[in-house]
Specification:
single chain, alpha+beta, seven-stranded mixed beta sheet, 18 helices
Length: 699
């Protein structure tokens, strides 16, 4: 039996888990199932493996597909035996006649079943949860053996006959272009065959290539060595003066002024003016790079008026569209092959690197492989957005929050695709701002305008990163101002169990709720913001973390809880701060309510990986610019967590029968504020800007 996996595999296990759901409803023998990776093709519908939505979007359709096929096979068996269909049951790759014990394999029945009309959905029986064979049980991913034995094919492993290799020198400043170039020294390198120019794309560039000078060779090394000998004069364009310090100051100044109101109920101004205690804080998160282990790479082959590509892409649909656009051909003339991804985090949903290969293949008249260097990857990324925020709260005589003001300023992602976009979208503001769940009577949220100067793109958990950092840190500051335990204070903030009606709470922008309203409106009412589920993960993490137990000097515990991508996560971090200011994290306790768990092994792995990525965001990683150019270049200066910082991580599931939520991203947002709140508990020093500066924490 073959099942086609339409989503891309980059470690989440989705290539395994969605077929598992189908196989369970079908009553297939998993040992007899072969998984084939789909090409990019409209017949598969939405193939964008992004936004932590694959499982919740396709859990229902996969169940329906499997149950429909099962019912058709059972009907085919009933016709073969001339017995009522109700007497026939699929069972582990066979259909069995209960009273006689006769059985036929699915392969025996497939031809007859395929000729039958497909029953309407309302006539199809789905399994009871108690009868699930695979769903909810741990399963290894189907590529595991090939991966650990070095036999798996990632994009960077692809080789096709007569392939040439390309390395591209791009302008170091976004929006710049080539004035002139001299290829003579590059052409003198052994193995280099040609030097060609990729025309620059006008800003905003969207998914199109940035442009630059490409060195074509018969091997990657020669292409890269030849590239180093290029002599290029650049026109650096309008962003040549971009400076991170000045840009940060601009955002922070904007955050302190009134902005565009996006949520407003009650009388925030009056409540702040009459507060028994008024608390305020400013928070900052820098640009971040994806820095996935496998750099962007692609192979393209232009033949006639058609193009075939091979790439590690999260979004084969977008590859097809973008390649067709840059080549000026029909999408039907583009074939997209999808390999395994050596990490993605949102970077590989942008197909600029595939379009580069397609353009170069047409220029040279044969197959071309483009391989980015790590320096290319760090310096020409679609960066996670920089963000400055200002928060204020009013506390009453008992320390309860009576008013909440939140201002956020960030360059929106749409500015990468459309000019003059300076405010965030409802989707971006719905990641920790307008969806703030606390039971506070007076709330106003505002968004400040800011122009963009680099490519901004999706990064694992997107705008939840800065917004969760600010909101969860500020909640901890309010607990301290009220003189209360942080866990107890969070319970008070969450208030009684309820689902949030954001329109009734004064939200004046669209709230897409992570796409569920558009992609699966039939289940949208089952994914409303539920404070009882936030309270559930908070209680579960606290109960398992030794919360309240005494720790040695300069150690502390911090807590944060956040909803994102339709799931709920709470994190308790146990940190230790050395006298030199260096932070270590002996232990993390993470609780998730993602509804029905398809594969607990993958959920646990995703939470552990999310924690490590968030540790990098909190302690190490940042992108800065000087004179328009990115200052970082490799893992030597764009720092990510190493194995010696990896904590002992415990993951707990809230068991329920809710529909699945997302898993790949929700563990990222609350981990950083939990760490920073723990640093405060250990040292009494607040962290309001990331990454943490050890100099501020020295004993």
């Amino acid at each position: 039996m073959t099942i086609v996996a339409s989503r891309s595999e980059m470690g989440t296990g989705i290539k395994t888990d969605l077929p598992l759901v189908l196989a369970d409803e079908l009553e297939a023998d998993w040992n007899q199932v072969k998984i084939v990776q789909a090409q990019g093709d409209p017949k598969y519908g939405d193939q964008n493996t992004d936004g932590s939505r694959s499982t919740w979007q396709f859990f229902g359709p996969m169940r329906q597909a499997g149950a429909t096929a099962r019912q058709m096979l059972e009907t085919a068996a009933a016709q073969t035996w001339n017995v009522p269909a109700a007497e026939c049951r699929a069972q582990y790759g066979f259909v069995v006649h209960a009273s006689s014990g006769r059985k036929l394999s699915f392969s025996d029945l497939a031809k007859l079943a395929a000729a039958m009309p497909v029953p309407p959905a309302h006539q199809v029986r789905l399994k009871d949860r108690k009868d699930w064979r695979y769903i909810g049980k741990p399963h290894p991913i189907v590529d595991l053996k090939d991966i650990v034995r070095g036999r798996a094919t990632y994009g960077i492993d692809v080789v096709v006959p007569d392939m040439k290799y390309a390395s591209v020198e791009r302008c170091p400043v976004y929006g710049g272009k080539v004035k002139s170039y001299d290829p003579k020294d590059a052409l003198s390198v052994a193995g280099v065959e040609r030097v060609v120019e990729i025309p620059a794309t006008r800003m905003p560039s969207g998914f199109r290539p940035l442009g630059g000078i490409a060195v074509i060779a018969n091997n990657t090394w020669s292409a890269q060595q030849g590239r180093q000998r290029l002599k290029i004069e650049w026109d650096y364009g309008p962003n040549a003066g971009q400076d991170s310090d000045a840009y940060r100051a601009e955002l922070e100044a904007t955050a302190k002024e009134p902005g565009k109101v996006v949520r407003d109920h009650g009388d925030v101004g009056g409540a702040l003016a009459s507060a028994a205690k008024r608390v305020s804080a400013d928070y900052f998160v820098p640009h971040l790079a994806h820095a996935q282990m496998e750099v962007p790479n692609a192979v393209a082959h232009w033949v006639g008026d058609t193009c075939e590509t091979w790439s590690p892409t999260q979004n084969p649909t977008q590859v097809r569209q973008t390649v067709a656009q840059v080549l000026g051909i029909n999408e039907t003339d583009v074939t997209v092959n999808v390999t395994l991804l050596g990490g993605g985090f949102g970077r590989k949903s942008k197909p600029d690197y595939v379009a580069e290969a397609a353009l170069l293949s047409r220029m040279v008249g044969g197959p071309v492989k483009v391989t980015w260097t790590r320096e290319d990857d760090i310096q020409h990324d679609y960066y996670h957005a920089i963000c400055a925020q200002h928060l204020e709260a009013a506390l009453d005589q008992d320390g309860r929050a009576n008013a909440w003001l939140h201002r956020t300023v960030f360059p929106p992602i749409e500015a990468t695709f459309q000019p003059d976009i300076v405010y965030g979208s409802g989707g971006e503001l719905g990641q920790g701002v307008i969806d703030m769940p606390y039971d506070i009577p007076n709330v106003r949220c505002e968004n400040g305008a800011v122009a963009n100067h680099v490519r901004i793109g999706w990064y694992r958990s997107v705008y939840n990163i800065p917004h969760s950092f600010a909101v969860c840190s500020f909640a901890d500051e309010l607990a301290a101002a009220a003189g209360e335990d942080p866990v107890d204070y969070l319970r008070e903030l969450l208030g009684p169990p309820r689902t949030l009606d954001l329109k009734a709470l004064g939200v004046v922008v669209d709230y897409p709720n992570y796409g569920v309203e558009q992609l699966a409106p039939q289940i949208a009412d089952q994914h409303l913001i539920d404070t009882a589920r936030l309270r559930g993960v908070l209680d579960l993490a606290a109960a398992n973390s030794n919360w309240g137990e005494k720790l040695p000097p300069r150690q502390g515990r911090g807590v944060a809880v956040h909803r994102s991508f339709l799931s709920y996560v709470a994190v308790v971090a146990n940190v230790a701060v050395g006298d030199d200011g260096q932070v270590t994290i002996p232990r993390l306790d993470m609780a998730i309510d993602c509804g029905t768990v398809v594969n607990p092994d993958r959920v646990r792995a995703q939470l552990e990986g999310a924690a490590i990525m968030s540790i990098g965001n909190a302690l190490y990683s940042q992108i800065t610019m000087k004179n328009g150019s990115v200052e970082q270049s490799n893992y030597t200066d764009y720092l990510v967590p190493r194995i010696d910082i990896t904590p002992e991580t415990h993951v707990y599931f809230v068991e329920n029968t809710h529909l699945p939520g997302g898993v790949g991203e929700p563990g990222v947002p609350p981990t950083a504020p939990a760490i920073c709140n723990a640093i405060f508990a250990a040292t009494g020093k607040r962290i309001r800007a990331l990454p943490v500066d050890p100099q501020l924490l020295k004993a």
